[in-house]
Amino acid sequence: MNKKVLRIYFPLFALPTLIAFIIGFIVPFGMGIYLSFCKFTTVADAKWVGMQNFKDMFKDPEFIHALWYTALFAVVSVITINFFGFSIAMLLTKGIKGTNLFRTVFFMPNLIGGIVLGYIWQLILNGILANFGATLTFSEKYGFWGMIILMNWQQIGYVMIIYIAGIQNVPGELLEAARIDGATNSQVLFKVMLPMVMPSITICTFLTLTNSFKLYDQNLALTNGLPSNKSELLALNIYNTFYGRVGFEGVGQAKAVVFFFIVGAIAVAQLFFTHRKEVQQ
Amino acid sequence: MKDLKKCIALAMVASLAVCAFAGCDKGGSTTGGGDTTASQSGGNSGSSEGGKVYYLNFKPEQAEQWVKLAKTYTDKTGVEVKVDTAASGTYEATLKAEMAKESAPTLFQVNGPVELAAWKDYCYNLKDSSVYTNLKSDDFALISGDEVKGVAYVIETYGIIYNKTLLNKYFETDGAVAKSVDEINNFNTFKAVVEDIQAKKDDLGIQGAFTSSGMDSSSDWRFKTHLANLPIYYEYKADGIDSTDAIKGTYLDNYRAIWDLYINNGTCDPKMISGKTGDDASAEFGLGEAVFYQNGTWAYQSCIDAGMTDDDLGMLPIYIGAEGEENQGLCTGSENFWCVNSKASEADINATLEFLNWVITSDEGRDMLANQMGFVTPFKTFDEKYQADNALIKAANEYIEAGKTAVSWNFSTIPSEKWKDNVGSALLEYAQGTGEWSAVEKAFVDGWKTEYQASHSGADEAAATPDNA
Q1: Domains observed in chain B
Q2: Interface of A with B in 16-55 (CB under 8 A)
Q3: Which of A40, A113, A134, B93 is an S-S bond match for A46, by CB 3.0 to 4.6 Å?
Q4: Global pTM?
Q5: What ipTM was estimated for this complex?
Q6: Would the CB atoms of B29 and A47 count as touching at under 8 Å?
């Protein structure tokens, strides 16, 4: 009976979402792949050129630079965000006074949009750098660390919440047993705690990794690629190629497709490796 | 296994949908194409019944006035006119998005021959339209082959705007290098004046001779495009050409001299200019913190809003130390060309042409453009009653009346935006001290060649495709 009902109503309930998904995701995605093989000015009016866009793409030194710059940015931000997020989560599960207040305060930056945050931090960092006679866009190194600080500030609170949930799920008797067996603090942390919160680590590294690769608003607001497009992350590079260069729309589209595959491959690989480390309770 | 089946099913649905949607798109664009040919063979005499006008406006400063003008027209004729304005700096992106839609703009604009190359398949031939026949000269039209692709609607002038009050105050100081603005008619005098003002900035109560030369994207076009026009102009003049596929950079030393003058005599340390915006410069000038400000007639309103009066404002040509520059005037030209979308329906095209005709011939239209928007227009229909008037335009006219040669806007022949960006970045790094001047030379000369090739291989392909299709 239940199964029958399900069979009748499943399409009815799934259809609106499915249609929305097709219109909002599948179709643009298919068109995007098609357009990456085309030369066009507007997306409705494209001429097939085959692999030309992909060839042109790798001739662009700025794209290669953006690729490495983004990779470096992703590595540094994933490590710092997760390290600080986890540390703060550990602190805030020790039952110190005002825990709830601190959790709220740390989480709050995440509620502000990327563009706004970017401009706020631009003012703050430029204000500080002005004392040293420089600005954020003085060299790409300043922009890089500026973005790291910004992303840490924004994301730490978010991963902290996930880690807190994970830490609270670690059974108290396990920790107690470890202590009774004479485990040191670091042994408790590395041999008991970390393996038990591995699912949270999987989620958090996935989120921070993909976020760092796809970062756009903060990059746009903070440095806008200056100087010389050297602080340009991949997403901004793609946008600038597509909209900023007459005749390079197809190349921008090709970059976007390659970008998708890179982010997809890295995310899947990361999920695979961290999943393997998870333990069953 | 079940999951796999689901995935395959989903993929099939997706591909079906893609085909269906792609099919729709193709259908749409081919009918659009059909209409175009019909309207072209029908010529201008075709009816505009039921036609609509959609103007994608480039100038945010005049956004509200365009909407008002459109409403007046709709009230009078019943023809629907929609005006949309792209946010500052996003015109190209907005245009690309809007043109892909079914109700695409019927009236849009390009900023010169380089951008025209991307949009020329979308430009209706304006040869028989009244906006073209009423032009004072062909110099103000974009002509490709024997087709008129675009028509300029506003002529603008830029130079070095100066604060008359402050400059006069300087002329009265002891040991002033010059005693009147008329004496400043070449680079050396100008340089001496600027450096002397900078030295006496505390006595004059200012922060610097020049406003900050901000290299933020809201301001960098003043240097990578407008200032770069001067070495290009003089090189073209010396070689007797009006565009080139490879620039030689004959006047690059002059470019360096004027750039040095800007950054070393500004309101801020050259190390800080990467973060300075157009608003910063405008505010510094408006508040009387600097005497000189490189900008154009469009900056008039912001100066007045900052509390300056017409008597405070004057404009000097940008002298770079080229031969015969005593007779050089201000830089005058246009980078705002109206184009009519050739892929719109015949009725819409005709409605748009009628609207344009009304704008440049009716009292309401002319009053709005000249008196309220403050545009200097290149149309014959604008008689004495419809001449834009403000202190900066007056300054521009005075130079023309004095028989000085206006500098044309050769920056519209710059091969690509990328070229400007690269030159701008090199200028910035040179100013900060993190780069050498040779990088500017490289971006200027070598960059011109590579960008010209990159954008032209594309343009040739685009030109070849209609034949193939």
Answers
A1: 39-155+335-382 (3.40.190.10), 158-332+398-460 (3.40.190.10)
A2: 18, 22, 26-27, 30-31, 34, 39, 41-45, 47, 49
A3: A40
A4: 0.77
A5: 0.71
A6: no
